Amino acid sequence: MDIQQLLYFIPVAGAVALAYAFITTRWINKQEIGTDRMKKISEQIFKGAMAFLAAEYKVLALFVVAVAVILGLTAHEASSHPLVALSFVLGATCSGLAGFFGMRVATRANVRTAAAARGGLAPALKIAFRGGAVMGMSVVGLALLGLGGLFIFYTGFFGVSVDQAPDVTKFGRLINVLAGFSMGASSIALFARVGGGIYTKAADVGADLVGKVEAGIPEDHFLNPATIADNVGDNVGDVAGMGADLFESYVGSIIGAMILGAVAVTGGMEAAVLPLIIAAAGIIVSVVMTYAVRTKEGGNPQHALDGGAFGAAGIMLVLSYFIIDFFTGRVGGAFNFAGMEVDTMGLFIAMAVGLGCGVLIGIVTGYYCSKGKRPVNSIVEQSQTGPATNLIAGIGVGFESTAIPILLIAAAIFGANHFAGLYGVALAALGMLSTTGIQLAVDAYGPISDNAGGIAEMSGLPSEVRERTDNLDAVGNTTAAIGKGFAIASAALAALSLFAAYKQLALGTQDIILTDPQVLIGVLLGGMLPFLFSAMAMKAVGDAAMDMITEVRRQFRDIPVLKAALTLVATAESEDRALTPEEDAQVLAAGDEADVERCVAISTQASIKRMIQPGILALAAPVIVGLWSPHALGGLLAGTLCSGVMLAIFMSNAGGAWDNAKKQVEEQPRDTENNLGKGSERHKAAVIGDTVGDPFKDTAGPSLNILIKLMTIVAVVIAPSLAAMHGSKAAADKVEVSAKSE
Amino acid sequence: MDIQQLLYFIPVAGAVALAYAFITTRWINKQEIGTDRMKKISEQIFKGAMAFLAAEYKVLALFVVAVAVILGLTAHEASSHPLVALSFVLGATCSGLAGFFGMRVATRANVRTAAAARGGLAPALKIAFRGGAVMGMSVVGLALLGLGGLFIFYTGFFGVSVDQAPDVTKFGRLINVLAGFSMGASSIALFARVGGGIYTKAADVGADLVGKVEAGIPEDHFLNPATIADNVGDNVGDVAGMGADLFESYVGSIIGAMILGAVAVTGGMEAAVLPLIIAAAGIIVSVVMTYAVRTKEGGNPQHALDGGAFGAAGIMLVLSYFIIDFFTGRVGGAFNFAGMEVDTMGLFIAMAVGLGCGVLIGIVTGYYCSKGKRPVNSIVEQSQTGPATNLIAGIGVGFESTAIPILLIAAAIFGANHFAGLYGVALAALGMLSTTGIQLAVDAYGPISDNAGGIAEMSGLPSEVRERTDNLDAVGNTTAAIGKGFAIASAALAALSLFAAYKQLALGTQDIILTDPQVLIGVLLGGMLPFLFSAMAMKAVGDAAMDMITEVRRQFRDIPVLKAALTLVATAESEDRALTPEEDAQVLAAGDEADVERCVAISTQASIKRMIQPGILALAAPVIVGLWSPHALGGLLAGTLCSGVMLAIFMSNAGGAWDNAKKQVEEQPRDTENNLGKGSERHKAAVIGDTVGDPFKDTAGPSLNILIKLMTIVAVVIAPSLAAMHGSKAAADKVEVSAKSE
User: Fold this and answer.
1) Closest Cβ–Cβ partner in A399, A417, A639 for B534
2) A341 φ, ψ to 5°?
């Protein structure tokens, strides 16, 4: 079979995923929606989420157009092309669509999951998981449809034949232009993660502080106008943000492997096309395996999810061997990667090493964040003496938790590189993400179940419903932890391969030498950026939360019916009794007076306004440093990778550990005498730790992985222009020539 | 004049400093010591401090002997020499002695400062400052006596003439052997900083938690057996730890410049000797300027300190021009540094750039940590809504505070390198530290005044005495902030020059290429180490504090007289009245029953036990990675520099900002209604932030600068062996030859 024909399999696989998503969405929409109250709440959440997306995308559209114009105008004519602007716009659009599809279905599935949970665990699991699967398939479907379609179009446009040893100059242009897609995806992902992260934490903190602490009403109470914003935030941050994030990772790891594969020009473009085919096969496997996720009433939903995700990864690994072998078989059994002979087994081992590393990091991550394990136990123990020791312990746990993952990443780089060179490192990253379709289904299933629980609470469903949704939410955690491991490891490995690609495109035979003062300056500046970026993100959460607090306070003060109802609820709460039927009616009526839309609008505006500054920092830094010196830009990327990965691991694990330490304290028997359980001083300390951890794990931490890759892909895209500007073009040309003559 | 003759000026200057220290110590010991109670307390502090040093040095002696034996046995015969063990032992000994002298005089000067403060501000300032000056001069005196003496000895031993173009192989050996001195100094400094940091914070947290929070007695009360340990801790951490720290920085920056200077072999060894002569001149200037520090009663002590420290720096800068000019004049007006012609003005500008960068970083650091400025104001503001927002704000401030210092360091590297190459970068580091003698006097003056205040409190001196010592303590802050700026900037620049030296010694003409997977693995591992190291340090503080808490609780429970007295004091405290004379007598008698020695012993043992693990990590990591690959070790050093500098700045500034935010809240008018001032919820939140910041700024943060340099100097010392092992020796030899032929 020709490779050229095989290319069509790529967008077809993407279309299959989208078809699955479409059909499943229709199925979900047909499920029962529950009571009127549930319907109303779910409508509010849906509208709020859509309002946020609309506002966000309006800003981002301007941004995308502006950047596209600049990219188009500055594209270097010999080694790039103005079409890079098209790639960028398409990448951004697909990323935005993935977030949109995912969030739309999630806000439909949450209420239906709650409704189904009234009947039992199995039907609820089915809806929540399928909701997640729509998200997962939208992400991978749009990615492969976009990337595959563009690739086919560009091979035609630039006159590159994938079945013959390509004209390296032409193929270099093609790859550079295609990289614009990844840049578009990463840009949108960064804004979505940061904006979503600010939104969700601002609403969360604002709602809790004024409602629970100041007014004394229960959490998630419908009298609190910020509660809906809080629920919207969960969708905006955990669903749309995560979707854009994984879209970015997925595309980045494919492009990274393609660029490095383009160097190995043994036969035709086998090594460059292989990553796309592996991704396409991963989609088919993911779609099939979603049907394996089902549980009987009384069965263990954990097994169902694990079976789906791990089953898919295992099948995919085996399948990859044959796919790789097909490609290497066409060029005499091995790729020639920069002088190194890399055969099927070498590439397969590299992929396996990546998968193994991701799984192990996931297990370590799980260990550091799980209840009952040493790290969380130590935080619970230290909470005894108050918030200060709780915080010191949590920060210590977070710092410590960087050690083993970094050793594992180092081992994976070593192993993959040993067996298959830098191309192997890129394949290792891709291996972890090839089953993103189903992996993301499990990840997105978590927030859907969580939201279902919130809706059950607000709608006054029986407590067993809430128990079921909590049960559903909890079981996804292990698989989600592994997913986190994949995200961390694949980000580091993909950044590494993109970094190597940048060096190749910008500097050719010139090296980035670590003792060169320019490079060292770059390393230091790069190391600083993740700190500055995190500072901006955390400050944004603080400021946005303040806006929310002010608004909720205003409503509680200025709306008389609301004020009266609040007093009723708070009094009943403090007397530990239920409301009388008359009180209940009064409170219910007052709930309609709460100006929910205004809170949603405030969270929306605040988060969108404040996502811009860190986003610009991420985009501008590599451009400015690159204009000064492409060597310094190399240092910058390495520095950002170095401190960014550490901070990301530190922040997510510290946040996760604080979260579960709080939960562990809450599960202790209530005994304030001995400083145990809810209501004790220990619990207060644990709650404070959890609050500090919130912006760590939900805003700054997850954005850092994107920051690292966005900066690298920007560098890759501007590399040809930098090479031309700084006269390292000659060197770059020389490489191309020497590569061609091999 | 021959350079050979000039060499004798170096140990002579060292001897002058030591003579100053000796004479001044005698003068201090002659000052009045105050009441019997003061004498007793000061004796307890003195004994506790000496007990710690004795215990610490016992452990370190074993460590030093073990490392010396290994160094001696593994020294590469052609490019190093077993004498490196002698250098190492001497470096460690001098560092230990500097800590010992400094702490001995500090524990003598504190009580005398308190005694003098009864008479007025001026005499108290004189004693506190001179106490600090003894410390400062001991540090620089021992450094130059040791380094200068060894250098003279080694030039004879290795048959190197400093007045002729040297045999590069011989000179390479000499420099490598001399670097052992720096390694000895850095090793001791790391243990002293970590051990001292754990001691002081364990005692502080333990004393406060059980005394103030649980038993309800005032801070620093003599009934609390941990109070003396707390005061000992201030000396152990802030005086001895800081002394060893600056000894290490001072020696490291001199050696770094010498190694790079050795490459510039234009005439004789001018460029290698120049740093020593600048340091020697700096000593003389410092000694002279100490006499300029005096204030009249009613005068501003700030001006006196500023005048001394800045005056010395200014004079030294001007003087440096002439010293540089003398040396360049001998070789035709310019050094030839690796092909670059560097003249007097170029070198002078490099030094000036370094000084300017240090001063500006100091100002920025001051800004981020000062009361009334935006960062601290934002923490005070966010403390309104509790500890969680206080902590998020503080962490945000700390993260943000890395930005400008890193830009300044980058600018300094750029400027110094532009005008004088990497040698210029090394000189820039040295320029900041050339007046360490007087700079450290101002730094050490702070803890002495602080301790004097504590003694005044515990001895029941009139409140105006405490006010005067507080006043003294406060004025040193600006100068101390500048000193902090110097420490940060010089650490980064010195590490950079040592890094370049490592590359030269280990790899010769081979480059450390950033896209090499081994180097990238090194960068990632190196980036992780400061996080793991900080985790260990913070965990150690937590564990040691727990030991202390347990002991104080035991005493409060098991010693009946103590228990009874505690109840009296706590009751009086809660009723806001003074003790009756009978009660007072009873409490005073009970105070003698508190087992102070036991608390001191616990803090001592805990801190010494727990300083070992992080210390071993710092020493072992470069050796292990180096054995695997010298290229990866290069990456490791860069990674550690990159994330270590950020974490160090983050931790010290966040800690400093929390500290002053607490103080700012305490200065607000007491108004719990509006959540202002002492006793308010805002104050509680600020206290929690301050406690979290304590191990940041006093344990982990300051140790990181040493960690960076220790790892680099270890790499420099083992470089010849690594080069031989990995066959990069041939390359290294080739460089030496090519350098010779220039």
Assistant:
1) A399
2) -85, 120
What does the pLDDT read at residue B220? 75
Interface-testing mutation among A391, A399, A509, with chain B (most B C-beta atoms within 10 A) = A399
Q: How far is the C-alpha of B146 from the C-alpha of B251, rounded, in Å?
A: 10
| Nearest-CA distance A643 → chain B (Å) | 5
C-alpha A286/C-alpha A136 separation (Å) is: 9
Question: In terms of CA atoms, which chain B residue is nearest residue A417?
Answer: B517
d(Cα B742, Cα B737) in Å, to the nearest integer? 9
Kindly list the residues from chain A whose CB atom is less than 8 angstroms away from the CB atom of residue B413.
517, 520-521, 524
Identify the helix (H) or strand (E) that includes residue B341: strand B340-343
Tens-place pLDDT, residues B37-52: 899 888 888 988 888 8
Measured between beta carbons, which residues in chain B are less than 8 angstroms from residue A406? 524-525, 527-528
Specify whether the CB–CB gap between B514 and A519 falls below 8 A.
yes
Per residue in B191-201, pLDDT tens?
999 999 999 88
Our CA-based measurement puts residue B489 at a distance from the nearest CA of chain A, in whole angstroms, of 12
Confidence check: pLDDT of B101 > 70: yes
Closest Cβ opposite residue A382 in set B389, B511, B542: B542
Structure tokens belonging to residue B606 = 């805990």
What is the structure's pLDDT at B735? Answer: 42
Burial of B212 (0-12, 13-18, 19+ CB in 10 A): middle
**CA gap A431, A315 in Å, rounded:** 12
* ipTM here: 0.92
At how many degrees (to 10) do helices B681-695 and A387-400 cross? 40
Nearest residue on chain A to B422, alpha-carbon basis: A517
Closest approach of chain B CAs to the CA of A540, in angstroms?
Answer: 10
Residue A301 lies in a domain: yes
B287 pLDDT higher than 50: yes
Q: Report the gap between the CA of B562 and the closest CA in chain A (Å).
A: 23
Percent of chain A's residues with pLDDT above 90? 44
The enclosing H or E element of A681 equals: helix A681-695
Of A402, A403, A511, the CB nearest to B511: A511
**Which residues in chain A have Cβ-Cβ distances shorter than 8 Å to B695?**
392
Identify residue B161 by its one-letter amino acid code. Answer: S
- Residue B588 domain-assigned? no
- pTM for the model stands at 0.93
Residues of chain A in contact with residue B716, where contact means CB-CB under 8 angstroms, are: none
pLDDT at A555 over 70: yes
CA distance A114 to B602: 57
From the list B23, B50, B55, B34, the residue with the least C-alpha distance to B106 is B50
Position B566 in a domain: no
SS3 (DSSP) at B415:
helix
How many angstroms separate the CA atoms of A87 and A151, rounded?
10
By residue range, what is the domain housing residue B45?
Answer: 3-559+594-741
Q: Is the pLDDT of residue B225 over 60?
A: yes
* Number of domains within chain A: 1
Name which of A316, A703, A711 is nearest A495 in CA terms: A711
Q: Residue B639: its chain A contacts at CB < 8 A?
A: 642
Residues A718-740: tens digit of each pLDDT: 998 898 888 754 444 444 433 33
Is B103 in contact with B240 (CB distance < 8 Å)?
Answer: yes
- pLDDT score at A450: 85
Q: Are the Cβ atoms of B513 and A515 closer than 8 angstroms?
A: no
Residue B147 within any structural domain of the chain:
yes
Mean pLDDT of B722-733: 66
Q: Do B407 and A525 touch (CB under 8 A)?
A: yes
Residues of A in Cβ contact (< 8 Å) with B645: 524, 527
Give the mean pLDDT of A633-642: 96
pLDDT at site A739? 39
